[in-house]
Every structure is written in C-alpha cells, then in structure tokens.
Amino acid sequence: MHRHYLLTLLKNYQPYDKDERGMYEMLVRFVENQSQCFERHLRIGHITGSAWIVDRERRHVLLTHHRKLDRWLQLGGHADGETDVLAVALREAREESGVESIKPLLTTPFDIDVHSIPARGDEPRHLHYDVRWLLEADRAAPLVISSESKDLAWVALEDIGRLTTDRSIARMTEKLPTD
Asked: For residue 113, how many C-alpha atoms fall within 13 Å in the half-sphere facing its CB?
C-alpha cells in the first residue's frame, strides 16, 4: 500500500515524448511489481528523487558535477525507504547544495527517467527509476559543495549543452515553462 501515493501521482502524468513514455511505463511496472521499490538494497534498481532547480527568472538551472559519475547532472538521490518522492528530491537538493530555501513549483512530477548505474565495488549494475521535480531557489543563495560533488553551478539554460549532451537533461530544459 505504501506505493499507492506514487502510483496515484503517476496515473495522470503525461510523458513528453516517446522515449520518456517508455521510461514512464517501465517505472509504473516497477513500482507495481516491486514491494521494496523505495529501498536502496533492492539490487536490480530502486526509486530515486531528483531536483530540477531553476532560478526565479527561469533562466538558470542548478547542476552538480557528480563525483562518482564524473558528469554534470541535476541534484538528487535515493529514496532510502521514503515513499514521498518529492520529499526525497527536496531533502537531496538541500543536502547537496546547502540551499535551505527551495520550493516546489509543481505538486506533480516534472520528468521521469530510468537510467543504468554502473557496477561499483560490491554494488552491481542497477537501474535508477528517477522521479524528477521542478523546484525553485534563489540564485544568490550561497552554495555548499557536498562530498558527493566536484562542483555546483548555476548554468544558463542556453549553456547546458556545453556541459552535457545527456538527453534527459536536454528534455528537462525543453520542458521548462518559460512564463
């Protein structure tokens, strides 16, 4: 029953394109079939919550240069048993940026992504079923780089392609409301 809230949120979600639709369908099946989907110890994969943090003007997004993956990404992390994935995204955003005043702009998911995480140590290759949320923060707030990051930066939307060619990052940039 603890999966009911997420499944309810996903029921009315409208994927942006064909690729996201496939990942959305994978996510729904995963949540329906895996009672421990929110637990990191589920070795085939688990739910994660990510934060697409924009500034008030909607011209910049806060990205982290992820230490383990050595890539520029949105902030986020493991649910670790938490079934409120928005709360997960907010927690991770605050922990990974040092910014306390972060607020949701939507009460529904902003993006869905399923991606592979490479094997590392005794952890096998697995999938992250990532539920992403549109959040807002003040670009003037001081940033604190966590141990999970090499760097943090507010990146102008038009400059994101210089840091990453990741399709999921491009998709979130395209989906961002401009008004």
From this structure: 23
Q: Give 61-90 pLDDT, tens digit per residue.
A: 999 999 888 899 999 999 999 999 999 999
Predicted structure pTM score: 0.94
Q: How many CB atoms lie within 10 A of CB 86?
A: 21
**Residue 47, CB-side half-sphere exposure with 13 Å CA sphere:** 32
Phi, psi of 116, rounded to the nearest 5 degrees? -85, 135
How many angstroms from the chain centroid is the CA of residue 49? Answer: 5
Amino acid (1-letter code) at residue 153:
A
Q: How would DSSP label each residue in 44-80?
A: TEEEEEEEEEE-TTSSEEEEEEETTTTEEE-EEEE-T
